[in-house]
């Protein structure tokens, strides 16, 4: 009997031990991070990447690389002892929504990007993420610091709360904020028109493009200027020509920070757009069409002028599939004829990388960023490998973290222009070498963006940074913004669209709109923004 009891007791102990081991194993498996048997640190990332984007599929088909196993993840494994996993990955809009759910549940990745400044403020003030200022100071390489801080340390304003830095900005070229005037030069030549220099020229060309049959099909089926519902943001250049700066914070002559969308300078560009609308020079259905829908008309050869960013090159080039004789150029932004144009820019970043409060190796974020910038911009950089792969030009974005030298696009253009002039393209290095190779591979969009003349960066080269106005407010939403900004923005968008469509008076109704905006919270927001600037 005693032997039987002892045997049963032994079995029971073994079962308990096995259960305990399994529990410990399961708990270990569920840990967000830790070292594997090879000494690698497993890190779960959150990244705003579209896993279904065309470029990802093309790279996998060409090389077998995936988002979790590619040249970047292998580099981080080799240099930083990191194994890449994704806890959260989605296109930007979906990512932001999913991250909000993760914040609410407290189930966060180890290292993740935050693009919404309100979310970042919530995470910092709630103690969910680690202070990164001292870690950045200690571990960031001179190269990384030179890139992050290239356009002043104001880039840290958006990640600073209570005097502490909680994230590392994913620095991007602020020249991404430029808006350009694209125009069909073949239409100009056909109709005997000169390139526009003033806003009056823009109007006259729009009239000709809409009324004089530039496509030669005998039908009145062309638009003089492309227009879409997000024109305040997507077509900023037409406003800049009148010294109007929508959706931008700057100091007025009295030294007060103001919001450009509600300033009286907005009236003239709105008047021009309203005139074009009434005369049929723009699409009367623009209020229900986004930029992508407008670009369909461009590609179809039915629109001859657009205001858009430099990467629109990849859209306008498709026009040539329908009309091999078409020729797009970019011209310097026309003005109302007064002072040289000024370009309003924010210190650009693709959000900021933050570290979960429970992650034991926050320095890994900075070390990986050191590795990233060294691979693209260091003395021994392999730009061709880590930027693109033939016509797959988004390899740089297929990394769990990224940050770019803000001068890379402009420097690439400048070096290529100089090399072409001196017949020394075989001596190009770094960014310019990579860009030029892609251009030589026949990627027209790259030539259109970075070529020596009549391109977006030819204009950037003329104006950056001497003619740039930097934003005066880039911090987290103020208290009133947090509750009222959405309705305040909706008011402006609705009213501006109605003014262009002739449904509202540009003088009396503009002033009423500003008063309503102030009553909705604008007056408080302006006070809060100016108070933040004083208290920095």
UniProtKB/TrEMBL annotation:
The entry's keywords: Cell membrane, Lipoprotein, Membrane, Palmitate, Signal
Transmembrane parts of this sequence: none
Keyword Ion transport: no
Signal peptide positions (record): 1-20
PROSITE patterns, A to Z: PROKAR_LIPOPROTEIN
Protein's recorded name: Putative aldouronate transport system substrate-binding protein
Organism: Paenibacillus rhizosphaerae
Phylogenetic placement of the source organism: Bacteria, Bacillati, Bacillota, Bacilli, Bacillales
């Amino acid at each position: 009997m005693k032997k039987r009891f002892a045997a049963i007791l032994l079995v029971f102990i073994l079962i308990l031990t096995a259960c305990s081991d399994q529990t410990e194993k399961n708990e270990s498996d569920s840990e967000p991070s830790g070292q594997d048997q090879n000494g690698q640190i497993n890190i779960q990332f959150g990244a705003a990447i579209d896993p279904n984007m065309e470029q990802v599929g093309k790279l996998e088909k060409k090389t077998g690389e995936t988002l979790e196993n590619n040249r970047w993840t292998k580099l981080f494994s080799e240099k930083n002892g990191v194994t890449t996993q994704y806890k959260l990955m989605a296109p930007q809009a979906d990512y932001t929504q999913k991250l909000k759910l993760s914040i609410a549940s407290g189930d966060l990745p180890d290292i993740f990007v935050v693009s919404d400044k309100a979310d970042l403020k919530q995470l910092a003030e709630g103690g969910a993420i680690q202070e990164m200022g001292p870690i950045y100071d200690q571990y960031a390489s001179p190269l990384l610091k030179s890139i992050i801080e290239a356009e002043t340390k104001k880039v840290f304003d958006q990640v600073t709360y209570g005097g502490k830095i909680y994230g590392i900005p994913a620095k991007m070229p602020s020249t991404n904020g430029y808006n350009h005037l694209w125009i069909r030069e073949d239409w100009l030549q056909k109709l005997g028109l000169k390139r526009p220099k003033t806003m009056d020229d823009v109007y006259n060309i729009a009239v000709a493009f809409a009324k004089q049959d530039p496509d030669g099909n005998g039908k009145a089926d062309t638009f003089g200027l492309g227009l879409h519902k997000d024109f305040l943001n997507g077509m900023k250049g037409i406003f800049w020509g009148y010294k109007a700066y929508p959706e931008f914070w700057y100091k007025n002559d009295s030294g007060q920070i103001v919001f450009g969308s509600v300033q009286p300078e907005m009236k003239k560009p709105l008047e021009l757009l309203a005139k074009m609308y009434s005369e049929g020079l723009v699409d009367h259905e623009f209020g229900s069409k986004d930029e992508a829908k407008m670009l369909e008309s461009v590609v179809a050869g039915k629109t001859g002028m657009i205001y858009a960013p430099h990467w629109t090159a990849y859209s306008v080039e498709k026009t040539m599939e329908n009309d091999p004789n078409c020729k797009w150029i970019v011209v310097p932004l026309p003005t109302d004829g007064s002072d040289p144009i000024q370009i309003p820019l924010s210190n650009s970043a693709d959000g900021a990388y933050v570290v979960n409060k429970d992650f034991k190796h926050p320095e890994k974020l900075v070390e990986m960023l050191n590795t990233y910038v060294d691979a693209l911009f260091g003395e021994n950089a392999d730009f061709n490998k880590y930027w693109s792969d033939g016509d797959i030009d988004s390899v740089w974005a297929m990394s769990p973290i990224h940050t770019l030298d803000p001068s890379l696009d402009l420097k690439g253009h400048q070096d290529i222009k100089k090399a072409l002039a001196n017949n020394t393209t075989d001596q190009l290095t770094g960014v310019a070498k990579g860009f030029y190779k892609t251009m030589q591979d026949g990627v027209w969009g790259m030539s259109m963006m970075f070529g020596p003349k009549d391109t977006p960066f030819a204009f950037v080269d003329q104006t950056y940074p001497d003619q740039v106005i930097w934003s005066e407010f880039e911090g987290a939403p103020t208290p009133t913004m947090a509750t009222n900004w959405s309705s305040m923005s909706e008011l402006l968008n609705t009213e501006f669209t109605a003014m262009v469509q002739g449904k509202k008076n540009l003088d009396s109704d503009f002033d009423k709109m500003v008063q309503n905006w102030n009553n909705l919270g604008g007056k408080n927001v302006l006070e809060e923004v100016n108070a933040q600037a004083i208290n920095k």
